[in-house]
Automatic annotation (TrEMBL):
InterPro entries: Bact_solute-bd_prot1, SBP. Its main location: periplasm. It is found in: Periplasm. PANTHER family: ABC TRANSPORTER PERIPLASMIC-BINDING PROTEIN YCJN-RELATED (PTHR43649:SF34), ARABINOSE-BINDING PROTEIN-RELATED (PTHR43649). This is ABC transporter substrate-binding protein.
Length: 422
């Protein structure tokens, strides 16, 4: 097995280096947290079992940059990557470039998976990706510090704000001048779409940007209230630098002991509990806060799937690799070793999995009822919708515009994107 980092000039580099031809297959994997190492380990197990060789390509951590890269590769009908790790919001966009796995896998291949994810990955009757791991946003917190200051785990975003201010002030007075109350993913990319949608959807009638009927709903008082509160965090309980944080930057601050709360995906659990972590055994995980007393916790659905490129020269072999990597044995290994959420309901009752990641049991309903982004209803226009949304939110967080003004402009921009329909 080979591994290499995918550079910006991917197509030119591969064409000149010619390395992809040395292996039977090439798979692209993410590199957030332990993601790349877990992928490499799974691929190595398949190589040992099958006798085939696989080259593992690391792609950008930013989902926005990764999608752009895939669109370049697939648009060129390149055979350089056989198996692609694709986001849960991409099947509809990338479907024309992906094989129908029903043609290569057994007829019962999807029967034990979450049906909602299988449905998400089925486009016009074609199974374009197999569910690999699912995700939903969760709140990490320092148990020791909440106990130290006599505080409860916050149930609302306002309570989180107040608790963060209290503990931040106390810790700074105690000598940790770099301590912050809350870190999250604030960079202008898909991760900010997720964070901001979680804030907005947690308020009554806040909505999900575009509803299931295709109506644009983002310009409403609850959404403005949510973004106004979030903007107040910058340089108060969140550092200015959070405006350029992705998942790993937020985890770095939290894991080094310099934040009370962190919004992130479940993968971070294994890392904050590692022997190298400064806060090991002092971390709790709960559902995200609600937007006020009448609101509700709103975790946005994430997760990644494995697809086979239409331009692969070995689609049957690639499908066999996909089947292996999404198997119960592999998903269990990834859950225990890296706290990646399985896409098989049975594994949430597995004693070894629950021993490794206890909140897989306590937050099961959070994972099964997570809110989808409006990718299905907006179709191939979703990237433009998301870009417009996260850029507007970033402007609000940066203090360049007021929330209501930003949402007014966003509503108009989304209408232009929609045109005569999604």
């Amino acid at each position: 097995m080979k591994a290499r980092l995918l550079p910006a000039g991917f197509l030119l580099v591969v064409a000149s280096a010619g390395q992809a031809q040395a292996a039977d297959l090439t798979i692209s994997c993410g590199a957030v947290g332990a993601e790349l190492q877990l992928c490499q380990a799974g691929v190595a197990r398949w190589e040992a079992q099958s006798g085939h060789s696989v080259e593992v390509v690391s792609t950008p951590n930013s989902a926005t940059e990764r999608l752009s890269l895939y669109q370049q590769i697939l648009g060129a009908q390149s055979s350089d990557i056989d198996v692609l790790q694709i986001d849960v919001v991409w099947p509809g966009m990338l479907a024309p470039h992906l094989v129908d796995l029903n043609q290569y896998l057994p007829t019962n291949a999807t029967q034990d998976f979450f049906q909602s994810i299988v449905d998400n990955n089925t486009v016009d009757g074609r199974l374009v990706a197999m569910p690999w791991f699912t995700d939903a946003g969760v709140l990490y917190y320092r148990k020791d510090l909440l106990d130290k200051y006599g505080l409860e785990v916050p149930a609302t975003w306002q309570q989180l704000t107040e608790a963060a201010r209290t503990v931040q002030a106390g810790e700074r007075e105690a000598g940790n001048s770099g301590f912050w109350g809350y870190v999250f993913q604030g960079r202008a990319y898909e991760g900010l779409t997720v964070n901001a949608l979680e804030w907005i959807a947690s308020y009554p009638e806040g909505g999900t940007i575009v509803n299931d009927q295709g109506d644009i709903t983002i310009d409403n008082p609850q959404a403005a209230q949510a973004l106004t509160l979030a903007a107040s965090w910058i340089n108060d309980i969140s550092p200015q630098g959070v405006l350029n944080y992705t998942e790993e930057e937020a985890r770095g601050v939290f894991q080094s002991g310099n934040a009370l709360f962190m919004r992130n995906w479940p993968y971070a659990w294994d890392l904050v509990q590692s022997e190298q972590s400064d806060i090991r055994d002092n971390v709790g995980v709960v559902a995200l806060p609600a937007g006020g007393e009448n609101g509700q916790s709103a975790a946005v659905l994430g997760g990644w799937n494995l697809a086979v490129s239409r331009y692969s020269e070995h689609p049957q072999l690639a499908a066999e690799l996909v089947a292996f990597l999404t198997s119960p044995e592999e998903q269990k290994r990834r859950a225990i070793d890296g706290s990646y959420n399985p896409t098989l309901p049975a594994l949430y009752q597995d004693e070894e999995v629950l021993a490794a990641v206890p909140f897989f049991g306590t937050l099961y309903n959070t994972f099964t009822s997570a809110i989808p982004r409006p990718s299905a209803v907006t179709g191939d226009k979703y990237p433009r919708v998301s870009n417009a949304f996260f850029n507007t939110v970033h402007e609000v967080l940066s203090g360049n515009t007021e929330a209501q003004q930003g949402l007014d402009g966003l509503q108009s921009e989304l209408r232009r994107i929609k045109g005569r329909g999604w």
